[in-house]
């Protein structure tokens, strides 16, 4: 026992001489292991959690598993004795892969999953077969003098829709287009115009949409869309150029071209999801009122038929890194002076629900929140990147020092840039709430990144950088928590 205390002391002292004022515990630092982080990622990616679709019972099971680990490590619940902060989260269960069939006169082509199509995460259940109308971005914005539906009749037809807005430059004009960038807006606008169904020219699993009665849709690869266009005597490349030039090249396709879509889903409008919230109270009687948040989204893209979207890189990796750092901070002989709050966010894939809910219902005053670091897709690559690092440079110096002294990875950084468009990350929600926020992710990917596809499994994770990410978090957060000059 005595020997252990001595070793700990020696390690703490050693660390302090090597690392200026920022003292840490070598044993805690070295206890972070890639093997254990991969065990966490493998657990979270397991079929039993069905891709952690926010709102689903399986998501809540994954949340419970994470809470049980926090409890095991002596990390306290942060919401009045509970590890969970609940919020409303409607979702749809996709019960089969359904089917998408393309007819061109007498020819008939069955589309393949996942090469040609991915079922709509919030499609209505049912079938639709109809002629096609191309509607570009599907936007009706009278105040901008723009209407993709002006020259076409989509009643009872299947529309072909593009994501995004024709205006893409990140400046004040984009703010005017931003309300039209949301998938939800586009779906509602399509239904308002009488569309019976949709093929979305954007192939990925995407729960960030809305389930509208009778509106059946699927996400289709752009190469299929290009073929459909070619069969109609159109050049898809040229049409996309027209969109970029703010033209509205909408048109009705020849009557012999039809699509059939079958979707089997069940909608749960009153479901709930949660953030997992756990904390280590600061050791300093005054500084403990201030808090540092480590967060990342726990939810994934769910399951479609028998296919689980493990959502391993996005974002079992980030959650595993956070848990590795949490365990190390909990066992660290050097305690954080400020409090540390861990938030495993729900509803990110559905529209940043968990981060928005937290910022509207914070567990600590936002003005006492010194910083937030958000991890999303931190597990495939050889280098780090920190958005916001150049803006919040004093805070970032703790992470840079940690990296330079002990981790030795390439670490890039950018300034916080004002985003005039649709917010795309939990980090942007916290930053907009007035909290100094970093977004940490990995670069120089070693394996292909299968974004929102079934192939995002644990075999595309690089365990070495996950270990380093957790170590970077442990050192950097401890540095910030104990910096009395902040
Ligand atoms: Zn993500």
Automatic annotation (TrEMBL):
A single MF term (Gene Ontology): metalloexopeptidase activity
InterPro entries the record matches: M28_fam, PA_dom_sf, PA_domain, Peptidase_M28
Top-level taxon in the UniProt lineage: Bacteria
Protein keywords: Signal
Residue ranges of every copy of the Peptidase M28 domain listed in the record: 275-472
Signal peptide as annotated in the record: 1-20
Record-annotated PA domain positions: 128-208
One GO BP: proteolysis
Annotated protein name in UniProt: PA domain-containing protein
């Amino acid at each position: 026992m005595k020997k252990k205390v001595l070793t700990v002391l020696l390690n703490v002292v050693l660390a302090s001489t090597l690392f200026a004022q920022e003292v840490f515990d070598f044993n805690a630092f070295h206890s972070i292991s890639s093997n254990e982080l991969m065990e966490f990622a493998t657990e979270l990616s397991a079929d039993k959690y069905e891709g952690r679709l926010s709102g689903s019972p399986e998501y809540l099971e994954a949340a419970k598993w994470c809470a049980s680990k926090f409890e095991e490590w002596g990390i306290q619940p942060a919401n009045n004795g509970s590890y969970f902060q609940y919020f409303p989260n409607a979702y749809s269960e996709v019960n089969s892969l359904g089917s998408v069939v393309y007819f061109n006169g007498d020819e008939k082509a069955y589309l393949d999953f996942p090469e040609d199509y991915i079922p709509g995460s919030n499609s209505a259940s049912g079938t639709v077969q109809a002629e096609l109308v191309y509607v570009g971005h599907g936007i009706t914005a009278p105040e901008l003098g723009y209407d993709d539906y002006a020259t076409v009749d989509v009643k009872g037809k299947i529309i072909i829709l593009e994501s995004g807005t024709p205006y893409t430059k990140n400046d004040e004009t984009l703010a005017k287009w931003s309300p039209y960038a949301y998938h939800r807006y586009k779906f509602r606008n399509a239904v308002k115009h009488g569309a019976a169904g949709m093929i979305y020219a954007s192939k990925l699993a995407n729960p960030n949409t809305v389930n509208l009665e009778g509106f059946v849709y699927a996400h289709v690869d752009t190469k299929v869309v290009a073929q459909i266009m070619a069969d109609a005597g159109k050049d898809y490349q040229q049409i996309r150029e027209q969109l970029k030039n703010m033209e509205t090249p909408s048109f009705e396709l020849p009557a012999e071209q039809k699509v059939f879509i079958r979707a089997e889903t069940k909608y749960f409008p009153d479901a709930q999801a949660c953030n997992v919230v756990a904390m280590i109270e600061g050791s300093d009687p005054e500084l403990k009122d201030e808090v540092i948040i480590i967060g990342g989204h726990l939810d994934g893209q769910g399951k479609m038929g028998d296919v689980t979207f493990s959502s391993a890189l996005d974002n079992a990796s980030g959650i595993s890194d956070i848990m590795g750092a949490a365990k190390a901070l909990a066992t660290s002989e050097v305690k954080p002076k400020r409090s540390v709050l861990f938030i495993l966010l729900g509803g990110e894939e559905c529209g940043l629900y968990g981060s928005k809910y937290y910022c509207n219902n914070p567990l600590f005053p936002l003005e006492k929140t010194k910083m937030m670091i958000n991890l999303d897709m931190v597990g495939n690559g050889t280098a780090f990147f920190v958005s916001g690092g150049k803006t919040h440079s004093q805070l970032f110096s703790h992470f840079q020092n940690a990296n330079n002294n002990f981790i030795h990875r390439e670490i890039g950084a950018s300034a916080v840039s004002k985003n005039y468009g649709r917010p795309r990350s939990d980090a942007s929600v916290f930053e907009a709430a007035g909290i100094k926020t970093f977004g940490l992710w990995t670069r120089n990917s070693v394996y292909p990144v299968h974004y929102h596809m079934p192939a995002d499994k644990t075999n595309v994770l690089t365990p070495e950088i996950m270990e380093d990410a957790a170590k970077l978090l442990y050192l950097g957060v401890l540095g910030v928590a104990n910096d009395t000059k902040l």
